[in-house]
Write a structure and sequence with these properties.
Strand order of the largest sheet: 1-4-3-2
CATH class: Alpha Beta
Oligomer: single chain
Domain VOC: 1-126
Number of domains: 1
Number of helices: 3
CATH architecture: Roll
Protein name: VOC family protein
Distance between the termini: 35 Å
InterPro entries: Glyas_Bleomycin-R_OHBP_Dase, Glyas_Fos-R_dOase_dom, VOC_core
Number of strands: 8
CATH superfamily: 2,3-Dihydroxybiphenyl 1,2-Dioxygenase, domain 1
């Protein structure tokens, strides 16, 4: 349904560094930069898999919001764990350690952090735990 989403951040360089570290375990990195010269004022970047910017952050004309929730898809529970650790190391605040959330469904494995602008960022894996 969605092609991409984006929001304004308070401190673009700080948020860019945070998301580069936090999203790396999920296989996402900056795949496109938009400079002020290119856009006439906006500066931002798009994260995603190679060639596909789907999550954008940057400067904007409006005030940065707080309290938005974004969940990134993880392929494995180990990726969720790695996202949480990387996001905390990048300055995020713990908002829910990695673990099952059976109130959503039996295999919902997620982790939550608060980003530098107060947004609730999650990585979630819906796959069952692999058997040995």
């Amino acid at each position: 349904m969605l092609d991409h989403l984006g929001f304004t951040v308070v401190d673009y360089p700080r948020s860019r560094a945070f998301y580069r570290k936090a999203l790396a375990p999920l296989g996402f990195d900056v795949v496109m930069d938009v400079t002020r010269e290119m856009s006439g004022g906006y500066e931002g970047c798009g994260f995603g898999p190679p060639g596909r910017p789907q999550f954008w952050i940057g400067t904007g004309t409006g005030e940065a919001g707080r309290g938005m929730h974004i969940a990134f898809s993880a392929g494995t529970r180990a990726e969720v764990d790695a996202f949480h650790a990387a996001a905390l190391a990048a300055g995020g605040i713990d908002n829910g350690a990695p673990g099952l959330r059976p109130q959503y469904h039996a295999n919902y494995y997620g982790a939550f952090v608060i980003d530098p602008d107060g947004h609730n960022i999650e990585a979630v894996c819906h796959a069952p735990e692999p058997t040995a």
